[in-house]
Specification:
Blueprint: E1 7-9, E2 16-18, E3 22-27, E4 33-36, E5 44-49, H1 52-60, H2 63-68, H3 74-89
Antiparallel strand pairs: 1-2, 3-4, 3-5
Amino acid sequence: MAKKIPLRQCVGCGEMKGKKDMLRILKTAENDISLDITGKKNGRGAYVCRSRECLQQARKNKGLERSFKMKIPGEVYDTLEGEFEKLEAE
């Protein structure tokens, strides 16, 4: 029997993709928001495709704010975009 691939929905484009093909954005108990590269940290996770366009779309459509049920300041998105750039450069 084929192993079931866990699917997650992108908060930017809304597409369903395999968990491995996406990046997890994490909200900790202290309401800190960061990129969870391992995908195993404790906290509430929201997934976004590995493209900057999807992150910008999530910012526009407030996808992360809905997922985490809280207001997200612009500088958090700027930090996430910076972390995205580092990943793309690798």
